[in-house]
Design goal:
This protein is of the alpha+beta class. It has 12 helices and 16 strands. The strands form 5 sheets. Strands 4-5-6-7 form a 4-stranded antiparallel sheet. It has a 4-stranded antiparallel sheet with strand order 8-9-10-11. A 3-stranded mixed sheet has the order 1-3-2, with helices on both faces. Strand 10 and strand 11 (271-276) form a beta hairpin. Helix 2 (33-46) crosses helix 5 (108-115), helix 4 (88-101) runs antiparallel to helix 5 and helix 8 crosses helix 9 (209-217). The protein is globular, with a radius of gyration of 26 Å.
Length: 351
């Protein structure tokens, strides 16, 4: 049994990593139709299916177009979860042990060939529609897809997707931010908080903090700011910025409607996002606390709270954990909120 690598083997790890990364990001993975047809047929055979008709198309988008045409079903067709580029991550791991440590698996090379043949595919009975690999991929220093000026990934037929540090952003919002036509109304109409966060990140990276502030100050005015400071014990694992959280309550009118938002900034992660709150709040502390809801029967049993964006998790006392277990069998549960002072006294970690 192999328990550890030799120094010589450890030195080779980066070489194998770079070999696989270069194959993918330098677009060397552009197999011919004959190779794709052979390998996808082998995948079907391995899985116990008869040989399929294989179609090789230019992009994942064209996969969908062709699937609708071939099946007569005008709906989204799921892409396969195996036999595509995503298998490269784990297959390359085992490939190192095969080549350097003598640990063989008779099917590994077959899996690698499947992964190198298809960026993505729609695998149907008797028909396999395969997308070619991208012709362009732009990324940041962490190998996350990223570009502030153009699409981060593009295929031969022109299909393209946009990403900011690995997070997807729509083409419409990307171009609007670049053209400075992206406005508050568009921002607040986004239903997903992660979409909002990505737009904020792009604005901040492209134009800086001052522009970002002016963007929101255009229609919203600052009502109150609360700075949450924690003791050293709560700063372990962070950048140790003294201000763990800065919360600013904004109010204003957009399209004739009164709105209120809290801007949350966490210096330990440099994350900034806006969360909508009820317009009745007059201070940032109570406004952000109002988003946290807990079963009323557990109010006295909260040990501490953690938050990620709009998602909260709570650690309860032993008695609270017992009550929580009982609540699982109840069809109706009464929820309530807690005051800002209590919320922040029990907040331990957020990002």
């Amino acid at each position: 049994m192999l328990k550890e690598l030799t120094p010589e083997q450890e030195v080779k790890l980066p070489l194998y990593r770079d070999m696989w990364i270069n194959d993918f990001f330098n677009y060397r993975l552009q197999p011919t139709y004959e190779e794709v047809e052979k390998n996808m047929s082998d995948l079907y055979k391995f899985s116990g299916f008869s040989k399929p008709r294989v179609l090789l198309v230019d992009s994942p988008n064209e996969c969908q177009v062709v699937a609708r045409k071939e099946t007569g079903v005008d709906a989204y067709h799921s892409f396969s979860s195996y036999g595509n580029y995503s298998d490269i991550s784990w297959a390359s791991f085992y490939y190192f042990f095969q080549e350097e440590c003598g640990i063989k698996h008779k099917e590994l090379n077959r899996v690698i060939q499947w992964a190198k043949s298809s960026y993505s595919s729609i695998q149907l009975e008797g028909l396999c529609i395969v997308s070619k690999f991208p012709t362009k991929i732009l990324r940041n220093e962490n190998n996350e897809m990223h570009s502030l000026e153009e699409s981060a990934i593009k295929w031969k037929d022109g299909y393209e997707l946009f990403f900011i540090n690995g997070k997807a952003i729509s083409k419409e919002n990307f171009e609007a931010i670049n053209n400075k036509t992206f406005n508050l109304s568009t921002f607040f109409n986004l239903s997903n908080e992660e979409d909002k966060s990505t737009c904020i990140e792009m604005i901040q990276l492209k134009y800086g903090d001052e522009y970002l502030y002016e963007f929101f100050a255009e229609s919203l005015k600052i009502v109150d700011t609360f700075i949450d400071e924690k003791e050293d014990e709560y700063l372990e694992g962070t950048t140790r910025g003294m201000n763990v959280g800065v919360y600013t309550l904004f109010k204003g009118q957009i399209n004739g409607e009164n709105i209120s938002y809290v801007r949350c900034y966490c210096p330990s992660t440099d994350r900034m996002f806006f969360l909508g709150v009820d317009n009745t709040h007059t201070n940032a502390k109570d406004a952000i606390a109002s988003l946290y809801r807990v079963p009323k029967s557990l109010l006295k049993h909260i040990k501490y709270i953690q938050r990620q964006g709009e998602r909260f998790s709570t650690v309860f006392t032993k008695e609270g954990a017992r009550i929580l277990e009982d609540l699982k069998n109840q069809s109706e549960i009464e929820y309530t909120t807690i005051p800002g002072d209590e919320y922040f006294s029990k907040m331990r970690y957020e990002f």
